[in-house]
Structure formats: structure tokens, C-alpha cells
Specification:
alpha+beta; Trna Endonuclease, Chain: A, domain 1; DUF1173 family protein; 10 helices; DUF1173; OB fold (Dihydrolipoamide Acetyltransferase, E2P)
């Protein structure tokens, strides 16, 4: 729920950020560099939540510097202050510079075969070189959430097409990839999102032969992009894609191959990485191939000749429209919201955010959060549930709830009329 007040006009942030929304572009052109500053309505306090209107080839909104922690945890413009705050000894995991982000990921993107000793120019020794500032980091899954959020893929508008596909995901993330730096390089130089490649003058009849040829062309171009982005020795690409299946190595060494949609070659998890993935994402691994969902992988990939090895991997569950969900119950709610043409946001966890609702409705007059309480018989979970309900009450948020174990079906959603 990120409603922006711009000159007295209220507009949802996702619509304002849509470069193809003619009304939003006209509205921002009117107030670009003006004396009236738009602001976010996510909370009703006196904290600064001003919005800055910027311009490239089109107008777009971004939060004012150093205000990300002032927004509600469920707001699109929110970033956990723990990830952006400087301290005496640490730089933050996310450094903001206007609409650009410099991100430190908690994973290796370079393999160093001959490490150089850490020598400080000031202190002159390896021991004292460590006195320089270190930097906090974000997990690989947190980084995937950040990309999804910055590309507005966790938002659904009533006018969205119900067949959002991998090309929409690739297009939206690629649009913002040049505004994110990872390891001193733009994400766009490392990123590979396998997708369909269509001819610009494509007006053919889309029969089986057409799709076979298009698939062959798409796989070839995606594979070439991965090859090019791993061409520097010891440098990793960051691959984001839909997992098709897992394949055990014939060599009985514990290695597991990951088949990514629209990639020809398998990406191989060494045995220790495969064990780590099973421990962290075992439930999601068991859901690969289910027809009502996607399992999205983000992984760092290194290449040796034609062999692609995964350095680290994280997984995320989405429904068929690529809305992230934390459970099968949430998936049912997301699908029902889409079927009823509702506008909503799925807040995503970037750090230790204590009070993130499962969903937020963006098309109601009042402020509504949606909660799915799917666990029973757990005292800690029950206490946490009561804390969240009280938190929403204190913030003047109305809370819709579904308890699958006790309710016969999904309750009706709050009215959007």
C-alpha cells in the first residue's frame, strides 16, 4: 500500500512508476522540479516520506534520500534501516545514491586462485589491514526479493494481464538492472534471465512448428548470454530463472544438475551446495514441477569450458503470475485476488522485518492488510499472531484474516467499491 499524494491527486505508486501510463507521465511532468513535493501516505505520522520526481527518457518517482526507513514495512518504498544505515565500523549492505543502489551480497562472485596478502597502505601489515571498515551484506534470497520489489513484480494491478510470463519478469528486472551495482559492477553486466526471444517482424501463425523454432532460437541466445557473462576466468554470472527439474550426476559424486527453463545446459550444484540447498529450501525443491506454481532460482554461476557450476543458490515460490508466496495457502489467496481483479502487493522480506503482512490491498478506501494464519498448535506462532494483530490495530490498519484449519473456505475480501 504505497499511495502517493502528488498535488492533491492520490495515485498508487505502482501506477505512478509505470512508464507507459500516460496519465502518470503527465502528472509527473507537471510537478517535475516544482515547489510542491509529492509524498507517500503509507503512515499517518510526521516523518518525511517525500517523493522525488526524476527524468531520463521518461519521468519516474523515487524516494527522497535517507527516508527509506520512514515508510511502513509493507510499503514499496521501504528498506530495512539495518540494511542502509552506516555505523562506526560497518558500511551498510545497501548504499543509496538517488534511485541507484550499491548492494553487497553475502556470496562470492569471484574465485581467487592466487590471493594477494591483505596489506594496508596506512598500517603496512596484514594484521592491521583488517582495521579498515568492513561492510554488511544481504543474502542471495534477500537480493532476489530486492530485485523483485524494485521491478514492481510483487505488485498486481486490476488492469494487469492474467498471463504474466517470464518475458515480463525479464523485461522488468532488466529495466532496473543498470540502477543496481554489485561488486562494483552494474547488475546488467552479470545478469542472465532466460526468456523467449521473438523476431521483431513476427507475424507468423503460432503453430507447433513456430514454437519449436522459437524455443530453439531462444535457448541458443540465452545460452550464448550465459557463456558471454561467464567468459572472464573466476567471474560469476547471476542467473534468475524458473527451475524445470533436478538431475542427479551419473558419477555418483553427490552433484545435482539444475535445469532452468529456456537454458540448454544444466547448472551443476557441487555436493556440498546441494546439501545446503536441501537444508534451506527442501520444501521448495519438493514442489518443482507442480502445475500451479513456479520455483524461481537465483544462483551465482561459474564456467570452466562448457561446464557450469553453481557457487550459491536460493529459491523462491511464486504463483503462475510470478507473485511470490510463502505457502500453498498464500498461493490460493493470490490466485483468488487475481481472479477477482484486485490490486494488491505482496511485501517481501529483505532483512529482519518484524511486521510484514502477507498481502496489502491497494484498491480499498481504507487501509487493509491480509493475513493467512496457517499454523496451529504452535504457542510461539499464536503469540506472534496476536502481536501482529495488535500492531495493525495500533497503526490504524484493518486486518482481513484467514485460518485455513478452522475456516471452511477463503473469506470474502474487503470491498473495493
Amino acid at each position: 500500500m504505497s499511495e502517493i499524494n502528488i498535488g492533491g491527486t492520490l495515485i498508487e505508486f505502482g501506477l505512478l512508476a509505470d512508464s507507459e501510463n500516460h496519465f502518470a507521465q503527465q502528472l509527473m511532468a507537471r510537478y517535475h522540479r516544482g515547489l510542491v513535493h509529492p509524498y507517500c501516505n503509507c503512515l499517518d505520522d510526521k516523518e518525511c516520506r517525500e517523493i522525488v520526481i526524476r527524468k531520463r527518457s521518461y519521468y519516474f518517482p523515487s524516494r527522497k534520500g535517507n527516508t527509506s526507513g520512514n515508510h511502513a514495512p509493507w510499503c514499496t518504498l521501504y528498506l530495512n534501516p539495518a540494511l542502509t544505515k552506516y555505523s562506526k565500523d560497518n558500511q551498510p549492505a545497501i548504499i543509496e545514491n538517488g534511485d541507484r543502489l550499491d548492494v553487497k551480497i553475502k556470496t562470492n562472485l569471484t574465485i581467487i586462485t592466487d590471493p594477494k596478502p591483505k596489506v594496508s597502505k596506512i598500517y603496512g601489515s596484514e594484521a592491521t589491514a583488517n582495521k579498515t571498515k568492513t561492510r554488511a551484506s544481504i543474502t542471495l534470497l534477500g537480493f532476489l526479493h530486492l530485485c523483485w520489489q524494485k521491478a514492481y513484480l510483487n505488485n498486481w494491478n486490476a488492469n494487469c494481464r492474467s498471463n504474466r510470463g517470464i518475458n515480463s519478469v525479464a523485461s522488468n528486472i532488466n529495466k532496473i538492472a543498470n540502477t543496481i551495482s554489485v561488486s562494483k559492477q552494474e547488475l546488467s553486466n552479470k545478469l542472465v534471465i532466460p526468456h523467449w526471444v521473438f523476431r521483431e517482424d513476427d507475424n507468423q501463425i503460432r503453430d507447433k512448428e513456430y514454437w519449436d523454432k522459437t524455443r530453439e532460437k531462444s535457448i541458443a541466445e540465452n545460452q550464448q548470454t550465459l557463456y558471454d557473462n561467464t567468459s572472464y576466468s573466476g567471474k560469476a554470472a547471476i542467473v534468475i530463472g524458473v527451475v524445470n527439474r533436478l538431475v542427479k550426476s551419473r558419477m555418483d559424486n553427490g552433484n545435482i544438475g539444475v535445469s532452468i527453463q529456456l537454458l540448454d545446459k544444466l547448472l551443476w550444484m557441487p555436493a556440498e551446495i546441494a546439501k545446503k540447498a536441501e537444508y534451506s529450501f527442501g520444501q521448495l525443491l519438493s514442489e518443482i514441477g507442480k502445475p500451479d506454481r513456479h520455483i524461481i532460482a537465483i544462483c551465482t554461476v561459474f564456467r570452466s569450458k562448457d561446464y557450469y557450476a553453481i557457487g550459491e543458490i536460493a529459491l523462491m515460490r511464486t504463483n503462475k503470475q510470478f507473485i511470490p508466496v510463502d505457502s500453498s495457502y498464500e498461493l490460493q489467496v493470490a490466485d483468488k485476488l487475481i481472479d477477482e481483479c484486485r490490486a494488491f502487493t505482496k511485501p517481501l522480506k529483505l532483512g529482519d522485518d518484524p511486521y510484514l503482512p502477507d498481502f496489502v490491498l491497494n484498491d480499498c478506501r481504507g487501509k487493509w492488510v491480509l493475513e493467512v494464519f496457517g499454523v496451529t498448535g504452535d504457542e510461539k506462532y499464536h503469540i506472534r499472531k496476536l502481536e501482529k494483530i495488535q500492531y495493525y490495530h495500533d497503526k490504524h490498519m484493518q486486518c482481513w484474516r484467514w485460518s485455513p484449519e478452522s475456516d471452511r473456505g477463503i473469506p470474502s475480501f474487503p470491498s473495493n467499491e
